[in-house]
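Changelog note: in this version the structure field was regenerated for every chain. One regenerated record is shown below for reference.
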Amino acid sequence: MIIARIESLILDKGQDDALNRAFAYINAGADGIMIHSRKKSPDEILSFIASFRAKDSQTPIIVVPTSFNTIKAKELGDAGANIIIYANHLLRASFVAMSKVASGILEFDRSKEIETQCMSIKDILALIPGTI
């Protein structure tokens, strides 16, 4: 699938620009639309979805609620979004966990005290086919 990523709202070009681009991309053959906003409120995204859905009920809409994180995925789906991507949350969480473990190793001068915060060697090896 070809998904057209629209940055109009991020660049403060407004909803009309975003909708014009969305329909131009669909007419050019895009299979879906990814829309972004840097606003904390989901209102801008919900307005875009409603306006887009008023003219197109079939094309998938993808949203990335990193900034407007107060809205639930179900609410976005009910509004007409088809795919919700939590783009960097796992990466950001992994850094916090790795920092905590690294600090523990430095604090205790060994890893014994932080082992409960780590996946077991057996479990990590089980992720690699043929190692167990």
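Spot check on this record: The first helix runs from residue 14 to 27. The chain has a mean pLDDT of 95.
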